[in-house]
Amino acid sequence: MAEVETLPIRPAAAAPADATAAASQPDRDALYQQIRATLGGSGLQDEEIQYELARWVELLETSKDDLREGARSKDDILLRLVREADVAVAALLSDKPELVFARSLRVQTENELLRHDGWLKRTLIRFTDGSPVLTVCLGAFGAAAAGLASLLLQLTPFAIDLTAFIPFETANSSAIAGAAFLGGLVSMLSRLQAFSRLGDFDHVFLFFNALFKPLIGVIFGLFAFAFWKSGLLPLDKELLQASLTPYQIWTVGFLAGFSERFANDLISRGEGLFAAAKKS
C-alpha cells in the first residue's frame, strides 16, 4: 500500500496584539447609540450631564490623523480613550450620576490628548502636567520676566520715550505703571486657590490670561490716573488741584491693576458722564 504523503500542519496564525486589544475594548459606535438613546428617550434634563456627554462625544471623534507621534502609539491612545469613555458614560447615565468622577476622568483624558495636539498646548502640558495652578504660575512668571526686562531697558540708552503717548510726568507715569503691574501680578497669584478648583479650562487661554493680566493692569492704572486728574470724577477740587503724594499715586495704580471691578467702575462712570452730557 503506497504511503500517503502528509503535509506539515501549520499552526493557526496568532491574532495581532492590536486586534486582540481592540476586540476587548468597548465599541465606539455602541457608546454613541447609548448616549443617543438616553438623550432621545428619557428626556435628560440635567444640563451639566448633557455638557459632559457632549464633551465625550467630541472626544470620541478623535482619529489617528488628529494625533501626533509620541512615546505612546496612536492605537494605544485611541483604545484608552474609548475605554475611559465607556467608564465615564456609564457613570453619567447611572441611576445616581457620578458627575465629579466623570468630569475628572474627562479632564485627564483631554490632557493626554492635548499632549499630541499643537506645539503650544503640548509645551504647556509638558511643563505644567495639565495643572491650572502651574499654568497660571507659568504665565505670571513670563509676565514678571517681561516686566523686569522692560525696567532694565529703561535704564539703558535704548530706553523708549513714551511721553508722546502718555501725557503725564515721567515720574508719575512710571510709578503708576509699576504699581499697576504689581497689582495685576498679585491679583493673579492671590487667586491660585480658585484656579486649583477649575475643572474645565483651556490651557492656552489660562496661560495668556495670566501673562497679559499685569499689562492690562498697567493700562487700567494709567487710565485711572488720567480720569482722576481730568476732574471728571466728583472729587473735592482742592484734592484735584493739590500735588499728589507718591503714596496716593502708588495706591491708585495698584488698585487699578489689582481690582478689575475698580477699573470697570471707573470706565462705567465715565461712560455715564459722557452719555448724560450727550443727552443734555
Quick structural summary:
This protein is mainly α. It contains 13 helices and no strands. Helix 4 (74-92) runs antiparallel to helix 5 (99-114).
Integer count of domains: 2
Low-confidence stretches: 1-24
The pLDDT mean sits at 76
Intertermini distance: 124 Å
Record field, number of beta strands: 0
How would you summarize the topology of this molecule?
Layout: H1 17-24, H2 28-41, H3 47-60, H4 74-92, H5 99-114, H6 119-128, H7 132-154, H8 170-189, H9 192-196, H10 203-229, H11 237-241, H12 246-258, H13 260-279
Can you offer a commentary on this structure?
The N terminus is likely disordered. It contains 13 helices and no strands. The protein folds into two domains: 101 residues; 155 residues, no CATH class.
Which key features would you list for this structure?
disordered N terminus; 13 helices; 69% helix; 0% strand; 2 domains; 280 residues; mainly alpha
